[in-house]
Amino acid sequence: MSTYVTAVLPTDQPPLMHQAVDEAVRLLKEGEVVALPTETVYGLAANALDAAAVAKIFEAKERPSFDPLIVHLASKDQIDLVADVPPEISATLKKMVERFWPGPLTILLPKKPIVPDLVTAGLPTVAVRVSSNPIFRRVITGLGKPLAAPSANRFGSISPTSASAVQAELDGRIHLIVDAGACMFGLESTIIKIEPGTPKMFIDIVRPGPITPEDLKAYGKVRQATRTVVDEATAAPGQLASHYAPKTPLRLLERPEDFIPEEGKRYALMSYRGEEKDGYLNLCDWEEVMMLSPGNGKLPEAAVRFFYVLRALDKLGVDEIIAEPLHEHGMGIAMMDKLRRASRRV
Ligand code: TXA
Ligand code: MG
Question: Could you tell me the EC number(s) of this protein (predicted)?
Answer without folding.
Answer: 2.7.7.87
